[in-house]
Amino acid sequence: MNYKIAVIPGDGIGPEVTREAVKVLDAVAKKFGHTFEYNYLLAGGAAIDEKGKCLPEETVKAAKDSDAVLLGAVGGPKWDNLPGEERPEKALLGLRKALGLFANLRPAIMFDELKGACPLKEEKVEGGLDILVVRELTGGIYFGERGVKDTDDMGKAAYDVEMYSEKEVERVAEIAFSMAMKRNKKVTSVDKANVLESSRLWRKTTAKVAEKYPEVSLENFYVDNAAMQLVYNPKQFDVIVTSNIFGDILSDEASMITGSIGMLPSASLAEGEFGMYEPVHGSAPDIAGTGKANPMAAVLSAAMMLKYTFGLSEESDAIENAVKKVLGEGYRTPDIMTEGKTLITTSEAGTLIADRI
Ligand code: IPM
Ligand code: MN
Question: Where does residue 52 rank: exposed (0-12), middle (13-18), buried (19+ CB within 10 A)?
Fold first, then answer.
């Protein structure tokens, strides 16, 4: 089969880790007889430098014309002083909205080989950790009405509106429940329904979706409690579904308790099969160009692309197994390095994984 992949390397370590993901995809293509056609596109700081804006129309158009998008990372100190609307990060938000990527899957999986890096006590994560955060990605406070205005006696005021419709909650809840069906059949919906009206609608709507999935248990947590429970008893979680902003925060927390944010991939899904795939880590400008970046999150994002958009489970598993093999053989990039292991560079990591496909 022939697949069209839009590749957006972006900024900082984005291009380096994306290069390794493509290297691994090429190994998959060769082994399984597929053709991956890559269309390289500009977004983020790289696009600001070349085209004068963070998300050129041709990038959106070409991304829409492809079967899936593979993204590195965007942003960096060079563009940090630009106004909000022009910052590289705005490209991410623009892509999410333009491509209709309403469901963001962020698996927080603890690799057995890396459990020493987990910051929690060993007994808290005994037997491993496998949490899937499903974050709503095109609504809520990220995309609500915002503005700045003058007040009579309090100086300037600024506001950002958190608003959710039933439809928006329903479709992301559907994804969470159908994912739970393939896992441990438990969904934890996270909100702030003791305070927020939008959360009360969220809670009511997820409960309605839950009726269609009698095998899945639904539990509701307030976000403050969820943040606490994640470090107190992370093993109680299977699928967490939550709003855009709560998901942003909780997915960082969940990823850190696996000890290896440099290892974690993500998928942003639209209606149908289309998706955008990117590592959870950012552009890490401090180590860009040094060969220190860990490409495994990008490589595993490519694996998610094969599974969710192309339906190629065997090929996806081949990538995951190759990554585990490389770890099992003791190879480590600096972020996950421990005593007695073999230190490798970004491109060595990619080659080692590709060789094991
Ligand atoms: C993320 C990032 C983005 C977000 C930023 C860069 C806009 O933190 O993907 O989690 O807040 O969604
Ligand atoms: Mn974030």
Answer: exposed
- Residue 262 pLDDT class (50, 70, 90 cuts): confident
Q: Do residue 74 and residue 172 come from a single domain?
A: no
Q: Is 26 a catalytic residue?
A: no
Burial degree of 65 (CB within 10 A; 0-12, 13-18, 19+): exposed
- Select from 54, 93, 104 the residue to mutate for testing ligand 1; criterion: most ligand atoms less than 8 Å from CB: 93
Q: What is the distance between the alpha carbons of residues 197 and 199, in angstroms, rounded to a whole number?
A: 5
Q: Which of 257, 290, 321 is the last residue of a domain?
A: 257
For residue 66, give its domain range: 1-109+261-357
Q: Known catalytic residue: 252?
A: yes
pLDDT tens-digit map of 118-130: 899 999 998 889 9
Residue at 320 is within a domain = yes
Does 82 share its domain with 171?
no
Q: Which of 205, 236, 257 is the last residue of a domain?
A: 257
How many angstroms does the Cα of residue 155 sit away from the middle of ligand 1? 29
Q: What share of the chain in percent tops pLDDT 90? A: 93
On the question of pLDDT at 113 being above 90, the answer is no
> How many angstroms separate the CA atoms of 123 and 62, rounded?
48
The pLDDT tens digits for 301-353 are: 999 999 999 999 999 999 999 999 999 999 999 999 989 999 999 999 999 99
End-to-end CA, the chain: 18
Domains contained in the chain, number: 2
CATH at 354: 3.40.718.10
Look up 38 and say whether it is catalytic. no
